[in-house]
Amino acid sequence: MKSRLYSWEGLLLVTFLIIFAFNTITQPQFLTVSNQINMFQLSIEKLIVVLVMAFIIINAEIDLSVGSMMGLSACAFGWSFQHGLDPALAIVLCLAIGAAGGALNGFFVAYMGLPSLVVTLATLIGFRGLARVMVEDRGITNFPDWFDAIGQQGFIGPVPFALVCFVIMFAVAWIVLEHSGFGRKTYVIGSNRHVADFAGIHVRRHKLIIFTLAGVVSAFAGLLYAARVGAVRGDVANGFELDIITIVLLGGASIFGGSGTLVGTGLAILIVLNLRNGMSLHNVTGHLQTGVIGILLIASVLGPRLQWPRRLGAARQR
Amino acid sequence: MNKQSLLALSPQLLRILALVAVTGLILLFFATQIENYLNGRLFNRISSSVAVMALIATGQTLVILTRNIDLSVGSTVGFTAFAAGSLITLMPDLNPALLVAYAALLGAGFGLVNGLLVAYASVPSIIVTLATMALYRSLLVEFSNAKSITSESLPAWLVDFPNLPVISIGDLQVRAGFLVAVTIVFLAHLALTRLRPARRIFAVGSNPEAAAMAGIDSRRVVLVAFILSGMLAGLAGFMFLARFGNITVVAGLGFELKSIAASVVGGVSINGGSGSVIGAFLGTILVDLIDSSLVRWPIVSEFWREAVLGAMILIAVAVDTLFIRRLDRMRAARAHETALAQQGAKS
């Protein structure tokens, strides 16, 4: 129990509880079902991508193109809808675009050996460009009712479809990352690629799979965004990649790969959501909220090294 | 050019020659596509926008050379542009040199914060600058208090400065802003290739352990690189203010990615230790040339701009990596042959 509390996740849990308690005490409308669901719903697409970004970062790579892929998928949906394609078919098409885009990243990173930062920076610009080509400077709206309903209405009681998806995907990601061979390989490759190579792991194939998955999941999240907002524009999900990466890093994943847990990531999600929600309820503007999260991010890496007991520092280094 | 003479050139020089060749080809291509394309106004347009981005890309290159990255430059540009604008609005009679110094020092201060956290607190630069990017932007939002700077409130000398023609050849004008940028890039290049303290940046970036063995204080080198990057971003903020006049809280948004893209296209290795500021400068020009030419190309819609740009960065980096790898292999093979020949001569 004691060692559990001293871990990075323990510290995140305490932080979360403090913020949660503070919000509950100071804002009566905080702890209501509608506010809690709303809190998740407003950034649910990012949270879904956070799950797959955790795999990428633990694998010692980075994917800056996720936000653009969300935009591309949403715009591709809008474009096909406008051109009279059956919406169900359009959804399949968008997921295929996600897979293709992710595989493109994966090919350049894994098989050509280019740094993922550069490759995904290029595709961040490129995917966004394709999205703009599809919708130009228009907005596309008037999707079929069932599609809008997916994003805007409750699926199980008041809980919307995207939140249900997120919970299921979180469970699946947790099992895969922490209780499967695939997950173990993700850690091994992330902590030492050469050792993984010598251990007979197909490093390149593994990276390709992870990047392809990131593309598919981002495309899916883009579709959820289109359904929730009920309209798409060329700048859908612009800049989301930074929020997504911030949450994963706050969750304790090392930017150098090989460490990080989904429990930590989940707690980081809760911290960021509660912090933002609490600040919104206290009328703190969005830009300032981002600044506070930025400070939190630096503190999360710096704090354990400077002030707290050494064991905590070790927990973060793990 | 045959194999032997190709091997004799340094990869850096080859990169620069390749960049110049590609830029030339693109110019020729668009000259056949767009009427009245190759004229002085094209140069004026591109040189004006390169004047701002080249400064940022130079700073970014210094940081990337040390194996780090600076994502906060866009926010620094925005903040310094706004701060310099408000200062000159409050004190219209301020000495221009003081205003430039103010912007540069402010930027250097931001760079100092980044550098201290990266070098002395050992926080990875991508985390630090991801956070300070958000932080500096929110400082700007707070500082601006929902107001914006307009060009009417700025003194005439400031707004006129970047477009001041220093040398005019017909339509073509070499403007003051561009000249300042070229001078700074050239000085940075001279320093990086000729000065011992600046060479340390390469030493730290290409092999930190060896640099430490050689007695180089790599922390200080990284700190200085970040300070310089911040300072150049501050200068770019001043140029941005002078060029556009109207500054809102979104000024400089996305410049961090543009500057990284320009450096990478210019052959600066993201893994540090290899690259040149001249390359980054040419990369800036190439990116800007394509960006502004695609807008005028009647065949494709202007919305293809970003898609083409993304594809171009990917191709540039892939070709560069493959080519350099091949060159290395050819060099290794030649060294091996020479060694064998020497052995044969001995025995």
What does this structure look like?
- The complex is a heterodimer of chains A (318) and B (347).
- With 318 residues, chain A is mainly α.
- Chain A has one domain (8-317): Orthogonal Bundle (ABC transporter involved in vitamin B12 uptake, BtuC).
- Chain A has 16 helices and four strands.
- Chain A has helices at residues 2-6, 8-26, 33-41, 44-58, 66-82, 87-111, 116-135, 145-152, 161-179, 181-191, 193-198, 203-229, 240-250, 262-281, 286-306, 310-317; strands at 139-141, 154-156, 159-160, 231-233.
- In chain A, the strands form two sheets. A two-stranded antiparallel ribbon of chain A has the order 1-4.
- The longest helix of chain A is centred in the last third of the chain and has 27 residues, at 203-229.
- With 347 residues, chain B is mainly alpha-helical.
- Chain B has a single domain (8-336), classed as ABC transporter involved in vitamin B12 uptake, BtuC.
- In chain B, strands 1-2 form a two-stranded antiparallel ribbon.
- In chain B, helix 3 packs antiparallel against helix 11.
- Chain B is globular, with a radius of gyration of 22 Å.
- The two termini of chain B are 35 Å apart.
- The mean pLDDT of chain B is 89.
- The A-B interface holds A 62, 108, 112-115, 117-119, 121-130, 132-133, 136-137, 234, 242, 245-246, 249, 255-256, 285, 287-295, 297-298, 301-302, 305-306 and B 69, 117, 121-124, 126-128, 130-135, 137-139, 141-142, 249, 257, 260-261, 264, 270-271, 301, 303-311, 313-314, 317-318, 321-322.
